[in-house]
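Record type: monomer structure entry
Structure origin: computed from sequence
Chain ID: A
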Amino acid sequence: MLCFSYPLFSPRIRFPGAIPLAALLLTGCAVGPDFERPVTQADAYTAKPPPAKTASAPVAAGAAQSFARNQELPANWWTLFQSPGLNALMRQALAANPDLEAAKAALRQAQEIAQSQRGALFPALDVNFSPARQKISPAAFGTPNGKNTIFTLYNASASVSYGIDIFGGARRLLEAALANADYQRFEMEAAYLSLTANIVTAAAREAALREQIQATRHIIDIESRQRDVLKSQFELGGASKAALLLQQAVLAQTRATLPELEKQLSQTRTQLAALAGRMPGEPLEASFDLASLHLPETLPLSLPSALTAQRPDIRAAEALLHAASAQIGVATAKMLPRLTLSASYGTESVSFGTLFTPATEVWAVGANVLQPVFHGGQLLHERRAAVAAYDEARARYRSVVLQAFRDVADTLRALEYDAESLSAQADAEATAKASLNMAQDQFKLGAINYPQLLDAQRIYAQTHINLAQAQAARISDTAALFQALGGGWWRRAGNETPEAARGAASNSMEKPAGTISNNSVKSAAVPFRSPARPAPTLSRAEPKQ
């Protein structure tokens, strides 16, 4: 708890007890802990540094990739894939995606709630005008046989009340509201990042599916021609009926895989339409294949120490931790005295025409001090619950940080190993294709039997599909790296750097570091400045329950 003093006595205050009341208000305390940002120590993402360059392959999405350490991420990182169709779809999605619109609306709501909470730091002024027709019984004045009186009473008044925030409960509520606004801001950034990454991943999946469908159709064409050759040989007596039936079965089996691939492609297209804020029946102009997506060859890799400031999910978890810290102060302030000053000035008259004359003037000045004494342990347990909520938020923050570093580490390894896998798949596909061409020629000449040709067909079919999947995996891995590193949201117009954004809420409250334990709250001997108070003079104090 931090205590400070500020002047409240003014020579203009003229009512009995003003000096003792001013003396009582000379000291104000902001109870509860002051938020301390968690510090994460990490020197590297992985135990083994990533290679200077990944493997390469002479196919689409097969370029070698290198990592530019400590390089800033671009805000519009998806433009590195050099796909006009992807860029156009991204613009449509960012303008019409309902989830992103909902996140923006939630942010506006949280910001307005935080602004409304600032009102608790200022006096409340109200004006009132109330004409009332009344009948008074003379029995109320001890004359039961008197005559009833009927009259109209006009009242016009202004009243002001001010809850003195002696122990900082209102400021802690404001601090929590500002932290919740930060949480919604980073939830919006997380929705933005998730949307853009999902679109790139879906585009890569569409490209892979188109390649697999094209490869399957090519294999169907090869197997159809082979069936025709076997049919001619069977009619001439050069092939058995069993060989012809087996080839027809293989052809039918290959054809059966095509509808499933077409279904997956259709589902991917409707997913892209939904991400872009369109109905499934609306046409989607953008279409993707592996040739239209250029793999970025240089990938920015920020320092591990910067990750906690860049990841929106970490920043959102930090904001929740901040709000939980502030709620401890709110719960503590409820256990301490509360002081409210009030005053009213107005006029009352039984005639509207005599309002605002000196004879009808009424006024009142007062103060109210409330000290909770016994609530059955409610306030104590509420404070303990607030401390437990902080401990929960702290553990969840730690979990989010660990998951974030795991995401980056897994993605870096995926980029390395998937590049090697693509290189191997490209070699396997090229070898399988050459083997199939040779087997077809040899089979026509009778140099090999049909089972050998069938094996060559199966190997080529599988390697071609595996190659398309490996190409899509490299594109998806690249998008995953940008997502794992935070997506460069701070480089968009209107956003601050991660460090500046991290300090925005705390700068508005100017809160120093503090520590929390399950049993007690310790505070640091550093200044606390409220938005509505002058600079404090410090002393230490800790409320007792």
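Annotation 1: The longest helix spans residues 169-235.
Annotation 2: The two ends are 14 Å apart (CA to CA).
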